[in-house]
């Protein structure tokens, strides 16, 4: 799979692009996470977050030099795993201490006031889920139990939907602002 193909596929059929990447890259990421001391559930969470980062960078056209989306996704997943390990003090290999996340890995922080408005648009349940996951750093398993989801996978899917709703709201408002400025 070449990068221009996946970039075009993101533009024309995002779901097909995600499925293609999931089929081709997830097994490799799962193997890597298991070797680094994680569990299958961790691999699913990490891979989903890596896909979101990859998608955002692709849509923002920040991936012009990518030769292989698989290698890039695995790199993102590895960095996310090491970051999670540092936060939760899970045992990691000595190599993880030497690896650093690039400065441009995350987008710049926006004013919290705008973020709060976007979260409000997503709804109360989304706010609770995202707050529990990102602010309180709870596992998706405990969030599923706490918020009444059937299982961890349901909570993971709902987290993705919440983030997607916030992104769409932000993008719509950004486009509206751009039209006003013109």
Helix content: over 70%
Distance between the termini: 38 Å
Count structural domains: 2
Oligomerization state of this entry?
A: single chain
Radius of gyration: 17 Å
DSSP E strands, number: 0
Mean pLDDT: 76
Count the DSSP helices: 9
Q: Mind describing the biggest β-sheet?
A: none
Q: What would you call the shape?
A: globular
Given as residue ranges, the uncertain stretches (5+ residues, pLDDT < 50) are none
N-to-C order of helices and strands: HHHHHHHHH
Percentage beta strand? under 5%
* Structural class assignment: mainly alpha
How is this structure best described in words?
The protein is mostly helical. It contains 9 helices and no strands. The protein folds into 2 domains: 3-98; 112-181. It has helices spanning 3-12, 14-35, 40-59, 69-88, 95-98, 112-122, 124-135, 140-147, 152-181. Helix 2 crosses helix 3 (40-59) and helix 2 (14-35) packs across helix 4 (69-88). The model has no long low-confidence stretch (mean pLDDT 76).
How would you briefly describe this protein structure?
This protein has helices at 3-12, 14-35, 40-59, 69-88, 95-98, 112-122, 124-135, 140-147, 152-181. With 182 residues, the protein is mainly α.
Itemize the secondary structure elements and their pairings.
Elements: H1 3-12, H2 14-35, H3 40-59, H4 69-88, H5 95-98, H6 112-122, H7 124-135, H8 140-147, H9 152-181
Helix pairs in contact: 1-2, 2-3, 2-4, 3-4, 3-9, 6-9, 7-9, 8-9
Entry keywords:
mainly alpha, 2 domains, 9 helices
């Amino acid at each position: 799979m070449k990068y221009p193909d996946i970039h075009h596929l993101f533009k024309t059929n995002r779901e097909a692009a995600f499925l293609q990447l999931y089929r081709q890259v997830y097994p490799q990421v799962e193997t890597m996470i298991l070797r680094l001391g994680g569990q299958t559930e961790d691999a699913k969470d990490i891979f989903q977050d890596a896909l979101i980062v990859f998608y955002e960078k692709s849509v923002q056209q920040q991936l012009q030099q990518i030769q292989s989306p698989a290698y890039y996704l695995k790199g993102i997943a590895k960095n996310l795993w090491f970051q999670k390990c540092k936060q939760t003090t899970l045992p990691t290999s000595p190599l993880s201490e030497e690896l650093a996340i690039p400065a441009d890995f995350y987008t710049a922080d926006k004013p919290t006031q705008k973020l709060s408005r976007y979260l409000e648009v997503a709804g109360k349940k989304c706010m609770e889920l995202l707050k529990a996951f990102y602010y309180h750093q709870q596992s998706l398993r405990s969030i599923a139990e706490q918020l009444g989801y059937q299982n961890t996978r349901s909570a993971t899917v709902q987290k993705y939907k919440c983030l997607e709703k916030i992104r769409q709201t932000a993008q719509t408002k950004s486009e509206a602002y751009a039209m006003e400025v013109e």
